[in-house]
Amino acid sequence: MQYLHYQVKADKDQIVQVTVDHEASIKLMDTFNYAKFQRGKTCDFFGGVYPASTIEFRVYKPDAWHVVIDLEGRAGVVKASVNLLKC
Fold it and tell me: Could you tell me the pTM of the whole model?
């Protein structure tokens, strides 16, 4: 499975901002769920399929948060950026 992966260390109520230039599946998950994702297990995440845009997620606990960006079989190449916004 090929996907883009970004990791950010965020405190509670910080915002993880994700920008994509192509429609893609964007998933934000904590470390525990990312480990499950890597093993192909069912995991909990925030997100879904978004058009080319900027999406913001507010995290609910301090953790190393993982952003996974995947085209899920769609044609093309996606470029992305991930920023952590201070509150």
Answer: 0.92
Q: Are 48 and 25 in contact (CB under 8 A)?
A: yes
Residue with tokens 């953790």: 63
* Average pLDDT score, the chain: 94
User: What residues pair up with 48 in beta bridges, in sequence order?
Assistant: 26
Tens digit of each residue's pLDDT (9 = 90 or more) over 49-73: 999 999 999 999 999 999 999 988 7
Instruction: State phi, psi for 51 to the nearest 5 degrees.
Output: -75, 175
- Show the tokens assigned to 63: 């953790």
Is pLDDT of 11 > 70?
yes
**Strand ranges (E), the chain:** 4-10, 15-20, 24-29, 46-50, 53-58, 63-70, 80-85
Nearest to 10 by CA among 56, 47, 65, 55: 65
Domains of the chain, with CATH numbers? Answer: 4-85 (2.60.120)
